[in-house]
Amino acid sequence: MNPVETMIDETDTATAEAEGRGPLTIESIADFLSTPPPPLDCVVDDLFEAGDKGEIIAPSKARKSFFTIDLAAHIAAGRDWLCFKIPRPRRVLLFNLEIKPAWMKRRFFRRLAAYGIRPEEIRNTFHVVNARGKGQVVREQAVEAVRRAGAEVAIVDPRYKLLRPDEPENAGEGMAGVLDLQDAMAEAGAAAILVGHDGKGTAGDRDDRDRGAGSGWTGRDCDFRIVLSPHADDPQDALVLSLMRRNFPPFESVTLRHDGDSFQLDEETAPRKETSFTRRQRATPAAPLDSLRPHVLAVCRQAGKALPAGVLETKVQEAARIGVKKAKALIALCEESGEIQSTPRQAKRGGEIRRGTPEQVAEYLTPRLAVKVSP
Fold first, then answer.
1. Dmax (CA) of the chain
2. Residues 6 or more apart from 62 whose CB is under 8 A from it?
3. Residue pLDDT, tens place only, 297-356
């Protein structure tokens, strides 16, 4: 090989290695484990480290951009927020691809003030790139920007602005380039977080793994997911916060409230996601309990005998299309009016209680003897 060919070959090899296209490294498991893993250094405890890949997913207009700003600001300030434990300040780089700078500035002024975070306090730890209409420029320069800022957390809001016209979001292949970019941002040293929106329909109907518009590749590729869902009882002002964590134990969902320009935990409200079923429940006013009493009598008559208490509750739930609590209350209402009765608790029958019409209970307690008729 002549010197010119050697020079070209060495240049190609160096370029390939710099772009991650060099030969794969194969090592013995003993060599791989010859040094201990680095100590855990979470940006947010039990959620992610620098170099991890994550997503923030929520339906349209569910305040996910506000949530993103608030989380980024608290990470930059090193302050705990909601259920997130943030050990120390980290350098955050936020790419804003959707909101014009003037409105972004207004959002920052209001939200930082609501939490008592002074801009000067996070001068050296929070940087923003306002690049509305420049999604492809960000796609080309994001990795270098992460390196220049020394970012430990890099957030792109929203993800779909990174797509090229020939990259359909609904096809896995269409998302490959964006996922490669996320990999490269993570390799550059930042926790790479993409903010995405849910597809059409009711978000709460889908498993958290399948949330987000387009291909399911993104949900399976990331190390963690922060998922926001409208609350079943108050979808306008309450959200259910769920977390998917590849490297940490499962997370119990919580309820959030948005008041003014800040989020707060609502520990008094159970985290019930809005679904198609809960929407129908809100649209159809619940019938008064008293009006459902005929269902209890119909169940008893159809059974033709006193039923075990648990069996009666289940059948009343099905007949009246109500939950277990309402079924118990409805049966108690019928018992108070004398329409049905209960047997005493039968020790010899395993402590069982049966309920039915007065005639059915009487027959159960004093069963009629079968009479043999002589031929």
1. 120
2. 228, 229, 230, 239
3. 999 999 999 999 999 999 999 998 888 888 999 999 999 889 999 998 766 555 788 999
Integer Cα distance of 128 and 23 in angstroms: 36
Look at residues 263, 221, 266 and name the one whose alpha carbon lies nearest to residue 244: 221
Q: How far is CA 68 from CA 51, 64, 90, 195, in A?
A: 18, 6, 15, 8
CA dist list (Å): 238 to 105, 198, 269 = 25, 17, 9
| The two three-digit tokens of residue 73, written as one number | 């600001």
**Across-strand partners of 262?**
259
Reported pTM: 0.70
What are the residues facing 238 on neighbouring strands? 257
The single-letter DSSP state of residue 233 is S
Q: What angle do CA 132, 133, 135 make, to 5 degrees?
A: 95
Please state, in angstroms and rounded to a whole number, the distance separating the CA atoms of residues 85 and 81.
Answer: 7
Nearest by Cα to 3 from 13, 22, 18, 11? 11
Phi, psi of 305 (to 5 degrees): -160, 165
Strand partners, 21: none
| Of the candidates 298, 347, 338, the residue with the CA atom closest to the CA atom of residue 307 | 298
29-72: pLDDT as tens digits: 999 999 999 999 999 999 999 999 999 999 988 899 999 999 99
Can you give the pLDDT at residue 7?
47
SS3 category, 62: coil
- Phi, psi angle pair for 39, to nearest 5°: -65, 150
Domains and CATH numbers, the chain: 42-279 (3.40.50.300), 286-365 (1.10.10.10)
- Helix then strand then coil, in percent of the chain rounded to 5, is 40, 20, 40
Q: What is the torsional sign of CA 266, 270, 275, 278? A: negative
Bridge-based pairing state of the strands 92-96 and 153-157: parallel
Q: Are 163 and 127 in contact (CB under 8 A)?
A: no
